[in-house]
Write a structure and sequence with these properties.
414 residues, mainly alpha, 0% strand, globular, Squalene synthase, Trans_IPPS_euk-type, transmembrane, membrane
């Protein structure tokens, strides 16, 4: 085992696999619920895990909330649908949750299946308590209207950017806060803090998806605000060309710096969450986001291909994020790693340092910091070799059977 460079991550992957197997037994046996939880796993593996840790009632409500919004997002994302057809679908999408006969063919892969069999989502929605149905309906209505607005309007200013992110993700924060309150587990959080939780995650996704969005066929999708990118290039697609690499990285750093302004609100929101399963649902994505921002910062590979956090580190975050001590520690360490990459010649370096300092100050003033030792560098050893070694240990100690280990390797290698 001495050759393992990241053994704690491999341990976390094994623990995550074991926990996921146990959670599968909690899924209601009815066909529509089986479909919903299976689909949740396919369209978002990491969110599926934290959602399934919730209590039964809230777990079902959040699962359906997520799938309804993913289905509507599939319509928005499909650039082959003419605007005149897409707009009324988005504006009226909230009605579809009440209609088990509704379906619409669009999207690809798992998302196409979700759209084709949306009746199962509707059937499950209709079984939810009215107190859960109303927030889901209201947020879906508002989000659909906002998505429709930006089908016809480009993201020009930073205000536009914040407004778009509010519609597609800030409202998710509103919805989760309302579902927590409906379950009786939390006080109703402020809209400002709920919104910031969504914006922090959405801006992470928009930065990550630059290349995929700009190369979208038949029509590119552009969510980086002109107010930022026009300082560096004449056209947004110019960022992907190698001759513009220096300017592209400066623009990227500007985008990351813009997102960091939401971090303190996120920390305040999470510190007020009482129920531990609700806390983990909120905290795990946020910790992953601050870590991913540290990976993105000053990283030209954003404009060359997919840039993601390694699976072992994600598994470790899922395993270790259980209290505000863990959150403050992770935000402090990842902010410090981002800070170490700041080039004083970067146009936004001073502002980046200011925002990182504010995050670190908030974390340090909590008095709850402990060392995590997070590392953003890739292991020099094969991740599969590490996984196989830890699986062997797990089998020896009876945590997994040999057949389980084969299944885990197959999933991990996808």
């Amino acid at each position: 085992m001495g050759v393992l460079s990241q053994p704690e991550e491999a341990v976390a992957l094994v623990k995550l696999w074991v926990a996921a197997r146990k959670m599968k037994r909690q899924i209601p046996p009815q066909e529509h619920w089986t479909f919903c939880y299976d689909m949740l796993q396919k369209v978002s593996r990491s969110f599926a895990f934290v959602i399934q840790q919730l209590g039964p009632e809230l777990r079902n409500a959040v699962c359906i909330f997520y799938l309804v919004l993913r289905a509507m997002d599939t319509v928005e994302d499909d650039t082959s649908i003419p605007a005149e057809e897409k707009l009324p679908i988005l504006r009226d999408f909230y009605r579809n949750a009440y209609d088990p006969n509704w379906r619409y063919s669009c999207g690809t892969n798992h998302f196409e299946v979700l759209m084709d069999k949306f009746r199962y989502v509707s059937m499950a929605f209709l079984e939810l308590d009215h107190g859960y149905q109303k927030p889901i309906e209201e947020i879906t209505r508002l989000m659909g209207a906002g998505m429709a607005k930006f089908i016809c309007q480009e993201v020009e200013t930073i205000d536009d950017y914040d407004e778009y992110c509010h519609y597609v993700s800030g409202l998710v924060g509103y919805g989760l806060s309302r579902l927590f309150h409906a379950a009786g587990t939390e006080d109703l959080a402020s809209d400002q803090l709920s919104n910031s939780m969504g914006l922090f995650l959405q801006k992470n996704s928009i930065i990550r998806d630059y290349l995929e969005d700009i190369n979208e066929i038949p029509k590119c999708r552009m969510f980086w605000p002109r107010e930022i990118w026009s300082k560096y290039v004449d056209k947004l697609e110019g960022l992907k060309y190698e001759e513009n690499s220096e300017k592209a990285v400066q623009c990227l750093n500007d985008m990351v710096t813009n997102a960091l302004i939401h971090a303190e609100d996120c920390l305040q929101y999470m510190s007020s969450v009482k129920d531990n399963t609700n806390f983990r649902l909120c905290a795990i994505p946020q910790v992953t986001a601050i870590g991913t921002f540290a990976i993105f910062y000053n990283n030209v590979n954003i404009f060359r291909g997919a840039v993601k956090m390694r699976r072992g580190l994600i598994a470790r975050i899922i395993d270790e994020t259980r209290s505000m001590t863990d959150v403050y520690s992770a935000f402090y360490e990842f902010s410090s790693l981002l800070e170490s990459k700041i080039n004083d010649n970067d146009p936004t370096a001073a502002l980046t340092r200011k925002r990182v300092d504010a995050i670190k100050k908030t974390c340090k003033s909590s008095g709850l910091l402990k060392r995590r030792g997070y590392d953003l560098e890739k292991s020099k050893y094969s991740s599969m070799l590490i996984m196989l070694a830890l699986l062997l240990v797990a089998i020896i100690f009876g945590v997994l059977t040999p057949s389980d280990s084969v299944n885990m390797v197959l999933v991990y290698s996808k």
